[in-house]
Amino acid sequence: MKRIILAIFTLLSFVNADVKNIVVSKALLAKPMKIIDIRTPAEWSKTGIITGAHTIMFFDEKGNMKTDAFEVKLRKIVKKNEPFALVCQTGTRTALAAQFLSEERGYENVINLQGGMSKLIREGYKTTPYRGR
């Protein structure tokens, strides 16, 4: 938990991030975009995922950032200048991940889906069951 708090303060200290914060909605998901779900396998199994989303953990179950492993998988899906969106349960973890990817790793078009899966599910979005890989 201390690592998460430290990461929050560190990442929030960057002021020039090129991150778009957009409130997630079913209508937004109707637009073509690559979505990266950064939650854990337990969360994916519990709620399902957005249809077509790519599942890559950014934080492990203990809250530790797994940035290098995450980026190796992310590079197989998006280019640094290509727009893509990040989703988690509420938008808190994706805010941190988006800031990190923009400021530390040079990704130019990161979108944080505020409200996350919780908001989508509350609004009646029907998820796709997660099938572990």
Q: How would you describe this structure to a colleague?
A:
With 133 residues, this protein is an alpha/beta fold. The chain has one domain (2-122): Oxidized Rhodanese, domain 1 (3-Layer(aba) Sandwich), CATH 3.40.250.10. The chain is built from 6 helices and 5 strands, in the order αβαβαβαβαβα. The chain is globular.
Summarize the structure.
By secondary structure, this protein is α/β, with parallel strands linked by helices. Helix content is 38%, strand content 15%.
For this entry, give a set of tags.
single chain, 133 residues, alpha/beta, Oxidized Rhodanese, domain 1, five-stranded parallel beta sheet, 6 helices, 5 strands, 38% helix, globular
CATH superfamily: Rhodanese-like domain
Helical segment tally?
6
Order of helical and strand elements: HEHEHEHEHEH
CATH top level label: Alpha Beta
- The overall strand count is 5
Ranges where pLDDT stays below 50 over 5 or more residues in a row are: none
CATH architecture: 3-Layer(aba) Sandwich
Q: What's the arrangement of strands in the largest beta sheet? A: 1-5-4-2-3
Radius of gyration: 14 Å
How can the largest sheet be summarized? 5 strands, parallel
What is this structure's SSE topology?
Elements: H1 2-12, E1 19-23, H2 26-29, E2 34-37, H3 41-47, E3 54-55, H4 67-75, E4 84-87, H5 92-103, E5 110-114, H6 116-122
Parallel strand pairs: 1-5, 2-3, 2-4, 4-5
